[in-house]
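DM from R.C. (forwarded with permission)

"hey, sorry to bug you on a friday — could you get me a structure for this? deadline for the figure draft is monday and I only need the backbone to look sensible"
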Amino acid sequence: MKKLNKISGTIGEIDAEKYLKNKGYEIVKTNYRNRLGEIDIVAKDKNFLVFVEVKSRATLLYGRPCEAVDERKQHKIRKTAELYLVTTKNYYTDVRFDVIEVLGDEINHIENAF
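My reply, with the result:
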C-alpha cells in the first residue's frame, strides 16, 4: 500500500508541475529537501516565490486532499521554507504557500493556502 501511495504521490506532483507551468509559473526546484523537511515544488509566480504542497488522493473516502495539510504540516513547511530562503540568500523575497489537490484527474489549486 505504501508503495502505491508513493507512486500516486509522484504522479500527482508531476501533474501539479505541468499545471503550474501551463499557468506561467517558473519551476525553481522540485522535491527540495533539507534537514527540517521537504517541499514538493518551489516556483516563481510574478514577484512571488511560491512553496507548493501537493496532496493526491484517488477518492474522497478519507476527505479532501488539502485537509491533510494540517497545522503541524504547515509549521514544518514554513520552517523548511525559511531554511531554503536563508541558504539561497533570498532574504527579501515575497513568499506564498499554496496547496495543490490532485483528486483523480481533477486539480484544485489553492493559492495563499496558509
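R.C.: lifesaver. The first strand starts at residue 26 and ends at 34.
me: no worries. The chain is about 35% helix and 40% strand.
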